[in-house]
Amino acid sequence: MHTAHLKHISLLAILLISSFLLLSKAAFAASPKIGINVSPPQKMTSSIPFTDIFKLSTGWVTSCDFDWQNNRPVDPGCTKKNSFNTREKESVRLDANGWVQSLPSQQEPEIYTSVSSVWTLPSSFPTGAYVVLYDGEGTMAIRGDVAVQQEVLGRIDFTLNSPKRNLRLHITATDPKRNGNYIRNIRVIPKEYEFSYQSQLINPRYAKKIGPFQVLRFMPWQQTVYQQDVSWNTRPKLTTAHYNSTDGVPLEAMLALSNQTRSIPWFSIPHKADDNYVHNFANLVKQKLAPGQQVYIELSNEVWNMLYSASHYANQEARLLWPRAYPKMNSGTRKILLAINWYAKRSAETCDIFRNVFGGQKNRVVCVVSTYAGAKRFAEELLDCPLWNKGYCGKHFDAFAVGPYFGDYMARIENRNTVNAWVNQPDGGMNSIFKEIFQGGLIQDNFSAIGGAIDRSMQNRVKHNVALAKQYGIPLIAYEGGQHLLRVDPPHTVKDPRLLEMFMKANRDPRMKQAYRRYLQAWKQQGGGLFVHFYGIGETDSRNYFSMLEHVGQATSPKYEALLEQLR
Fold it and tell me: Tens digits of per-residue pLDDT, 497-531?
């Protein structure tokens, strides 16, 4: 057979197989089983979700010039202490997209005379050939363990030899002719994507790694817990300089990832978003999301959690609406119950806006409300919402969500002596940790009779919530979940490096796959529906052991394998 015909048949076969896989996933996702939360923005240099790695950098850091050899300032006010960061970020003159329009002269009151955008690179960060592309005129340098091959206007070719010195893009002059042609639209691209990045926003390696998961919860990328005053007109856009600020990742980028991976997006609407913001958000989702694909909508994140500003805001709004509610209740519980009632009300209103925008396709919108898994009283208040004059909020929602983590009691301060003793065991405590997870009995407390960590989670965080969800005729799903061996909340915060290392080792232990397998099977057997793991890909640290993979180049892990198993 002619070679051209063979190529044509092979290409056709590949297209047919690819189409079948995409259609299969789309159909399968109609009743999704497993999803993930994306990693927090500060973990982007290990997950590397975008082909343009400039989006992962932090900016802008203000600097001044100090003559270290002669121990004297070059710029007025510059010192050894502030030369690398004068902490004048708020004074940087930016355009609407966050690009630096001009730098102060030595005669101006600001101390800084240059700016940098910086990356904190994990050891896993890919080395090799990169190119810096930019528009405008000025003076710019790339610094770190790099070798620069070429510098011409608008372009710098360099090799990243290692990530050990991080990476810094330093601008010392911009728009020298003062004609508005300042340095902007900076892109830092791996050479392999130089000719495809414009049509390939998402890093293919990242898309491939998370592609199997049916739902992507974008709360971390949206920076939901940090969102305060929000405006649709000033929201981040694809042209925004950095994607890891407190403004979050552009909605268009999240939709692009969902479409590329054929995954259902789960969005967390900021708690202060007005009706106009919600309407525009819904309209853009309807326009850009793949035809027929569902979208999960939730208001904010953990509004019951008084650690977050959303809870305090909800409480304040509720007090205005129902100033005489629950007068005899203790103040702490009253605050939470008031916040929950406002959250239920505003969630219903947000859902109504989305459904109205989607019109005849409103069945694509899945409205979710969530609460603390261990408090039945909070769940009942949420689904009843007795303070809202429309009442019985359960009828407004399509799913009820909780975070059924397991194992968090081990590191509680009252159990610290027991856990401390495990560190000195010959295997570094691994057998004890997994015995407690699977069987229990090593930590004696009021719940010891229930069994191990998985059994405790099902009994204390899942069973009663499944019953409530059935009562209201909606499924119980998990907005977050997984192991929670580490504690970062006072007074339980783990600071002992030996304990931190022990819990890290347990997360990497092959037995964690069996633990996840049993945990996810127990969740399903109890009646739980969609399970969204917290979280996807990100380097671990002393406050965060939650990721399923530690970097995008990691081939596999016990957690990753167990999660993938549930998709079969």
Answer: 999 999 999 999 999 999 999 999 999 999 999 99
Helix (H) or strand (E) holding 384: helix 376-384
- Phi and psi at residue 278, to the nearest 5°: -60, -45
**Residue 321 exposed, middle or buried by CB count within 10 Å (0-12, 13-18, 19+):** middle
Closest CA to 177 of 205, 142, 137, 228: 137
Query: What is the DSSP annotation of 420-467?
Result: HHHHTSTTTTHHHHHHHHHT--SS-STTGGG-SHHHHHIIIIIHHHHH
Contact 303, 271 (CB under 8 A): yes
Q: How far, in Å, CA of 385 to CA of 341, rounded?
A: 5
The radius of gyration of the chain's CA atoms, rounded to the nearest angstrom, is: 26
Q: Give SS3 for 235.
A: coil
Which 3 state secondary structure label does DSSP give 567?
coil
User: Where do the structural domains in the chain lie, given as residue ranges?
Assistant: 25-50+203-565, 53-198
d(CA 20, CA 511): 35
At 449-507, the pLDDT tens digits run 899 999 999 999 999 999 999 999 999 999 999 999 999 889 999 999 999 999 999 99
CATH of 25-50+203-565, one of 3.40.50, 3.20.20, 3.40.109, 1.10.3300: 3.20.20
- Classify residue 520 as exposed, middle or buried by CB count within 10 Å of its CB (0-12, 13-18, 19+): buried
Angle at 533 between CA 235 and CA 120, to 5 degrees: 55
CA 335 distance to own-chain centroid: 27
Residues counted in the chain: 568
Query: Rounded to the nearest 10 degrees, what angle do helices 309-321 and 331-358 cross at?
Result: 90
Cα distance between residue 77 and residue 90, in whole Å:
18
d(CA 367, CA 347): 8
| Terminal alpha carbon distance of the chain | 38
- Listed in sequence order, the residues at least 6 apart from 224 whose beta carbon sits closer than 8 Å to its beta carbon are 248, 268, 270, 300, 301, 310
Question: Which residues, 6+ apart, have CB-to-CB distance to 227 below 8 Å?
Answer: 246, 248, 270, 271, 272
- Give residues with Cβ within 8 angstroms of 44, minimum separation 6: 50, 55, 56, 243, 244
Q: List the one residue out of 154, 183, 261, 209 whose CA is nearest residue 553.
A: 209
Backbone angles phi, psi at 298, to 5 degrees: -135, 145
* pTM, 2 dp: 0.93
